[in-house]
């Protein structure tokens, strides 16, 4: 208790996820490509064949394997966007996926 934010259906989300996940593409602070040389999750280096992909929710940079999920950021969005596993799981728990 006190370590997360209480939500409907009795689930608790870690405070870090609640605070770090903007879930609004217009307010995301994207990491600059040139400052990142490896995937935020698996730490594999980027090169000509392993491209960088921004999670549209948190703005971090991942390889394609670690950002393979797609979902709408809100129910009003018509287009599904690329998400990392962490943000996809968060949206899934909210029931937005």
Task: Tell how many strands the DSSP assignment holds.
Answer: 6
Helix content: 10-25%
Distance between the termini: 27 Å
User: Major sheet, described briefly?
Assistant: 2 strands, antiparallel
Tell the overall outline: elongated
Q: What low-confidence regions span 5 or more consecutive residues with pLDDT below 50?
A: 1-22
Q: Could you give the order of strands across the largest sheet?
A: 1-2
User: Multimeric state of these chains?
Assistant: single chain
Instruction: Please count the helical segments.
Output: 2
Question: Order of SSEs, N→C?
Answer: EEHEEEEH
pLDDT averaged residue by residue: 77
Q: Which strand-content bin applies to the residues?
A: 15-25%
Overall radius of gyration: 14 Å
- SS class: alpha+beta
Attribute tags:
97 residues, alpha+beta, two-stranded antiparallel sheet, 2 helices, 6 strands, 16% strand
Plain-language structure description:
This protein has 97 residues and is α+β, with helices and mostly antiparallel strands. It has helices at 15-20, 85-94; strands at residues 4-6, 12-14, 53-54, 61-62, 69-71, 81-83. The strands form 3 sheets. Strands 1-2 form a two-stranded antiparallel ribbon. It is elongated, with a radius of gyration of 14 Å.
Summarize, please:
The chain has 97 residues and is of the alpha+beta class.
What are the SSEs and their pairings?
Layout: E1 4-6, E2 12-14, H1 15-20, E3 53-54, E4 61-62, E5 69-71, E6 81-83, H2 85-94
Antiparallel strand pairs: 1-2, 3-4, 5-6
């Amino acid at each position: 208790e006190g370590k997360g934010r209480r939500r409907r259906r009795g689930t608790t989300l870690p405070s870090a996820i609640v605070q770090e996940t903007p879930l609004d593409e217009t307010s995301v602070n994207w990491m600059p490509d040139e400052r990142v040389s490896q995937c935020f999750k698996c730490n594999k280096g980027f090169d000509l064949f392993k491209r960088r992909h921004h999670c549209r929710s948190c703005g971090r940079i991942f390889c394609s394997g670690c950002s393979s999920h797609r979902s709408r950021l809100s129910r009003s969005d018509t287009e599904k966007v690329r998400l990392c596993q962490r943000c996809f799981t968060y949206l899934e728990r909210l029931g937005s996926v």
